[in-house]
What we know:
The chain is 57% helix and 16% strand. The chain is α+β, with helices and mostly antiparallel strands and 134 residues long.
Amino acid sequence: xxxxxxxxxxxxxxxxxxxxxxxxxxxxxxxxxxxxxxxxxxxxxxxxxxxxxxxxxxxxxxxxxxxxxxxxxxxxxxxxxxxxxxxxxxxxxxxxxxxxxxxxxxxxxxxxxxxxxxxxxxxxxxxxxxxxxx
Length: 134
């Protein structure tokens, strides 16, 4: 077995483990919420989440009254790793846009173009400039 195949098998095993752990945490979080606030379970809805180990598919639990939202997920967030933070860190380190796109693709398990990296960095730097300017 070559190195690339072994890495792919290992990455998949880690991704499956991350999925199982996150799913167990989500279910335990809902149970704790229902014990504290009352209410009843109301099934699940699907959601994809990008992690440092690749994209995972989760079943997000919900309650009948619609008051529960998982404490470990940000509303509407689709990434556990902040794309902007990674892009700015690579930019600050002097990494080229194309190389940054390759690194982000490897880290986040999704293909990014150098144009996307530039757009994200520019948007974040512009937001930071607006916050610091009175």
